[in-house]
Amino acid sequence: xxxxxxxxxxxxxxxxxxxxxxxxxxxxASVNIPIERHKITAIIGPSGCGKxxxxxxxxxxxELSTGTRIEGEVLFEGENLxxxxxxxxxxxxxxxxxxQKPNPFPxxxxxxxxxxxxxxxxxxxxxxxxxxxxxxxxxxxxxxxxLTQSGLAxxxxxxxxxxxxxALAVQxxxxxxxxxxxxxxxxxxxxxxxxxQELKKNYTIVIVTHNMQQAARASxxxxxxxxxxxxxxxxxxxxxxxxxxxxxxxKRTEDYVTGRFG
Length: 262
What we know:
CATH class: Alpha Beta
Helix content: 25-40%
Number of strands: 11
Oligomer: single chain
């Protein structure tokens, strides 16, 4: 992939008439949304409307499942991510992913951070990188004296922050989060939300969440997805989060965010 221009668009990611297929089934249809740089964009909507499928399109992770294909474009820094000359592995370094269930490697806390950076060719001082990533993930003070212990020995909330730190180690520009707090208790959830506010100073974040309070608290812009008459998921409204939750344009959005359905 080419390096981004010095005069960059405010949109780090943008979809143009994006459709995503599993075999002959169109799971996501006609999505056109821009993702602003250094903002948190939430994707909300009822189960089965394609939220995670859309999220995974941003770093080509859908391709890891056989039979998937897209129509339209996903632009990253103005470049089509699905161009035949674009390496999907490089895409996933620059656009990292944090999953719903914490999934630390069965390695030490230190190696959870260092491993990805090492195989990606990092040449700097590894100790400094590990500390920096753990500090950015608000985890350093809790683990600095036990870096040789297994990441699997941490609490669920700590494991999720370790996974965020691991994603930061390869120096991405965008972090995708697929319901990152759904398996966590309320205190750990708030820590993740506070962390996101700090991270957006240096990264762009896109989050899928079923938690309406979380979307309202944590995000700057929100995409509302719904299933259309062809049983495909599509974005029915995209706006500033405050407007989505206080003055939505679509009645279906209002019904969903107020709990009338979904």
